[in-house]
Amino acid sequence: MTPFELIEPGSLNEALALLDPDDPAVRPIGGGTALMLMMKAGFYHPRRLISLRGFGVSGIDEAPDGALTIGAMVRLGELERSPMIRRAAPVIAETLVTHSNVRVRNVATMGGNLAHGDPHMDLPPVLIALGAEVLAASPSGTRRIAAQDFFTGYMETALAGGELITALRIPSQAGRRTTYMKVTARSADDWPALGIAVSVGGEPRITIGAATETAMRLPRAESALAAGASLRDVGQTAAAEAPVIADHHGSASYKRVLVGVYVERALRRVTAEAAA
User: Reduced to 3 states, what is the DSSP secondary structure of residue 118?
Assistant: First the structure.
């Protein structure tokens, strides 16, 4: 790795002032699990890294109505083990059990996971299905970005160059059931070839990740489900709708078959849970 400067600001405002949206060699660092791999592989050569460890919000709070606020510096392992998460949004904890490995989960942060924008991450389709919002701060103020609008392309997000993620907000999931299923080529914690999240109990949400350039909802499949189509037909609608791409995990035609099968399976699981 080439030499770089590491700065540890003591406040959010100080960190925001250190960012340079016009200089791609200046970047924030949370847990650093993805960034350090990119640096070691020679894909990224920073001039300055701004550590968020000294001040980043790291709590998990539940509002009286059941909504959750998760600080950007909360580690994924904390979410996996949190009784609050397991009660209010259990699909997050269930998903994280097979997300990468325990060593990564004990270092990687929620904010970093989102900002990285990797379509093969497990959480993006889950968070979209939960109706989550990303809270971002900049020198000009704060804004909320719906999770379904946050992931804009391959390794791309809606964050501006001078913004930092401060927290994630998940609305109350009362009356809803959400599940996540993924397909891997090797072990259960391998990078997925496909990730499907389904949420029912109100407006249906069907989301896809890994097999597409970015995590996204499948509105035609959602409409078919809302109209009373059979679960098999909903799966086939999703397979036809999803803009799947080929990569080393499999061909586009193979992934399209997977989409149909796993959307149907996820729907069967979540409807069974809702009826229990």
Answer: coil
